[in-house]
Amino acid sequence: MTVTISRLYNSYPDAQAAINRLEAAGVDHGDISVLASNADGWYKNDRPAKPGTFPDRDLDGKDDRAEAAGTGAGVGAALGGTAGVLTGLGLMAIPGVGPIVAAGWLVSALAGAAAGGATGGVLGALTQAGVAKDEADIYAESLRRGGALVSSRVADADASRLQAVLDSSAVQVADRGALYRKSGWKTFDPAAKPYTADQVKKERSLYM
């Protein structure tokens, strides 16, 4: 039996480190997905965050640009196109969240959100992936505020071991939700205005 485990992080580098640990623990890259805020523009023009590497948003070890060219994928088709096109591009705009970099199997669930929320937006994608609704609200709000989410499909027998792998540097979701509510937040609002780069910087300074 396969289950989905998810953890929240304050930034993409923290999420990438968690992905590296999962892979080192034996999880196939095809079973890992990441969603990360791009409100501060760290990922631009389909170029990787680190110079000298290639874009690999679907985590398959291959250059996404070559894969997209090989399948005839076009940039213009991204918003309403196939999951493969979205995965290859990396960038998506999600209602209530703003620009994110998305990679892996969650991208197909998010395609409806990018096209206008036909499948329930980011909350629908997360709950379909097995995330409880109350946690999905906090995950979505955290993405809006500059965070990153890693989700992995794992064998039930390995779940406890791999949860421990993800826990290092992960955000305590209940604590983060409590902080949000203390400032007046109640639940994720898909009609809310996404955070600006300055707001994200200020938000992250509270936790980092």
Give your account of this protein's structure.
By secondary structure, the chain is an alpha+beta fold. It has 9 helices and 5 strands, in the order βαβααββαααβααα. It has helices at 12-24, 64-70, 83-89, 106-114, 121-128, 133-144, 159-167, 173-182, 197-205, and strands at 2-9, 32-37, 91-94, 98-103, 148-155.
Helix content: 40-55%
Instruction: Name the shape in a single word.
Output: globular
Approximate strand percentage? 15-25%
Overall average pLDDT: 78
The succession of helices and strands, N to C, reads: EHEHHEEHHHEHHH
**C-alpha termini separation:** 37 Å
- Major sheet details: 5 strands, antiparallel
User: What is the structural class?
Assistant: alpha+beta
- The stretches of 5 or more residues where confidence is low (pLDDT under 50) are 47-61, 63-89
Note the total helix count. 9
The total of beta strands comes to: 5
Main sheet strand line-up: 1-5-2-4-3
What's the gyration radius in Å?
16 Å
What's the multimeric state?
single chain
